[in-house]
Amino acid sequence: MTTAISPHIAIQLAYTTPNHQHVIPIKVPTGATIESAILASGICQICPEIDLAKNKVGIFGCVLPLSHGLLEGDRVEIYRPLLIDPKTARRLRHSRNPN
Asked: What pLDDT digit, counting tens, does each position of 15-29 carry?
């Protein structure tokens, strides 16, 4: 028995704003890249603040280049820049409540 190779793979695209979590299931052609999946999803029209020249992207929390190829079931994530350094945030919280 032979298994046919599908011309498309199913992935998810995720982008979170302070007020909303966008999770978009899409099918992309086999061999698609992170960049092509982002463009195919339409997320850049929904969230115009996304700038692929500045925002980091990845799969399941691992930062990768836009040219990285995708596999069935991948979760492509677009990361927002940090507003404050985590160490600074921790110091500020501690200074407000030193206990």
From this structure: 999 899 999 999 999
Is 51 a domain residue?
Answer: yes
Radius of gyration of the chain (CA): 17
Q: Which domain holds residue 30?
A: 8-96
Q: Where are the beta strands (DSSP E) in 1-99?
A: 8-16, 21-29, 56-59, 62-64, 75-79
Return the CATH number at 62: 3.10.20.280
29-46: pLDDT as tens digits:
999 999 999 999 999 999
Cα–Cα distance, 81 to 53 (Å, whole number): 12
CA distance linking residue 91 with residue 82, whole number of Å = 16
Mean per-residue pLDDT, 54-76: 97
Evaluate whether residue 27 is within a structural domain.
Answer: yes
